[in-house]
Amino acid sequence: MTQLSEIDLEFVPLGDTGLRTSELQFGTWRFGKETEEGNVEIDEARAHELLDAYEEAGGRFIDTADVYGGGASEEWIGDWLDDRDRERFTIASKIYWQIRDGDPNSRGTNRKNVRHRVDAILDRLDTDYVDVLYIHRWDDETPAREMLKTLNGLVEDGRVHYLGASTLRPNAWKVAKANEIARREGWEPFTVSQPRYNLVDREIEGDYLEMTRHYGIAVCPWSPLGQGFLTGKYDREEGLTGESRAAESSRFEDAYLTEENFDAHDVLDEVAGEVDATPAQTALAWLMHRDGVTAPIVGARTVEQLEENLAAATIDLSDEQVERLTETKPGPYDF
User: Fold this and answer.
1) Which of 10, 106, 296, 327 is most enclosed, with most CB atoms within 10 A?
2) Count of the separate structural domains present in the chain
3) What confidence tens digit (pLDDT) does each residue in 291-311 have?
4) Among residues 64, 334, 316, which one has the least CA distance to residue 213?
5) Is 129 labeled as catalytic in the residue annotation?
6) Of 54, 68, 234, 256, which is the active-site residue?
């Protein structure tokens, strides 16, 4: 197995921002996350171990959100950064979800909420700015022009460098509309996007990718391993009968544990064997080879898992192997 010392992540352009980002970004959504049993998936000590490992591999882009761990993720990242040069790291966070019960203004992208949330983010991270601020979802209750005016103000006062839009796969037109408003008004547009995208979830290979190319928007996919499906840990027969998924939602089964997806996984296993890699590494390598993808976001519960995922950067797939994997699911995948 490739060791951390053998991994040296490269930097790639972050869309048209002028920034360069690590070819694999590190997602921290499990930091401080409580399980149904009341346990914490990743505590602060483990979080710092993972950040150390990511840094050792040359990683410099850390992705978080103000709701991850109820704010603990940002606090722990901020503590970790205290002993480092902040300028060497690109930090992204997100806003949207309601944070106070009974307060409808603590949700969405209204001006009151956005300004309050960004102040709290900067305080927890103990930094003067975030490099990328994502809207975690689209807020249909706040007019796009009002949202953009507020977000542009954050850029102008230096608290935010660039704007991003997360999880808007079916709504490419909303991002396009917002960017046209920004162009007309001379405001900061969306220049980074974060859709779900992996070998078996290919919805963005239509208007969405075409839109991001048109506007020079970076594409940083989350869930690149299909919520663990592409790691190879689910058995075809047990998965389809649900016996191995008793603790999971039926939505996961419906989305991933299908004959079509297991057929795609069979091809993934074949290619993984050819390049002497794990299915997870091969799925990540395929995504990194896809035209239009900037840098997938990887996460892990342990340093060993993170090491395995980051080693995907060392795998070189042939054009034939990329094409074979791409053809595992039907659709307009000629981007």
Assistant:
1) 296
2) 1
3) 999 999 999 999 999 999 999
4) 334
5) no
6) 68
